[in-house]
Amino acid sequence: MAKWNIDLGHSAINFQVKHMMVSKVKGVFDSYTADIEAADLADLTTANISFTIDATSINTRSEDRDNHLKAADFFDTETYPTITFKSTNITKKSADQYALTGDLTIKDVTKPVTFETEFNGKGTNPWGQEVYGFEAETTINREEFGLTWNAALETGGVLVGKDIKVTVELEVNPA
């Protein structure tokens, strides 16, 4: 098994959630690490993948909102500073499509989630290093992970939707 590094300049962990039932708030986690081992990344089924996300690095382009997300109402980053994911099974669905299943831990709750994952291909960068690209997407119910804060709206509905769409874009290269 070979180790692989994330090219942080060409990778991202993004999320979005409905706001006031009419629009979406989008954000990123600016700081994260990954342990990726695979015999051959062109066949993702050979991989062991784990991520550690610094929950304090949440960035929605609003300092007030980010501070609220870090507080006890949401991530409680003083008590739970990281979010983790560890793969448990990777199934090939087609030539470039995979189901990447693993344990996601937010706060003190661990649940299995499956990322629909696409292998975008491989190439050689200008320095002669082989690189591989992937995109992965899942939707989680935030309330299942203890992120239950909300506010009712006068017009009906709630301030924050339950479903969080998570998208991971990765470019990796040999360690």
Helical stretch tally: 1
Tell me the number of strands: 11
| Uncertain stretches of 5 or more adjacent residues | none
Strand order, largest beta sheet: 1-4-5-7-8-9-10-11
Largest sheet: 8 strands, antiparallel, barrel
Q: What pattern of helices and strands is seen along the backbone?
A: EEEEEEHEEEEE
Helix content: under 10%
Q: What percent strand?
A: over 45%
Radius of gyration equals: 17 Å
Descriptive account of the structure:
By secondary structure, the chain is mostly beta strands. 5% of the residues lie in helices and 57% in strands. It is built from one helix and eleven strands. An eight-stranded antiparallel beta barrel has the order 1-4-5-7-8-9-10-11. It is elongated, with a radius of gyration of 17 Å. It starts with a strand and ends with a strand. This is Lipid/polyisoprenoid-binding YceI-like domain-containing protein. Pfam families: YceI. InterPro entries: Lipid/polyisoprenoid-bd_YceI, TTHA0802/YceI-like_sf. Belongs to the UPF0312 family.
Summarize the structure in short.
This protein is mostly beta strands and 175 residues long. It is 5% helix and 57% strand.
Topology readout:
Layout: E1 2-6, E2 12-19, E3 23-29, E4 32-38, E5 48-54, E6 58-59, H1 63-70, E7 82-92, E8 97-106, E9 109-124, E10 130-141, E11 160-174
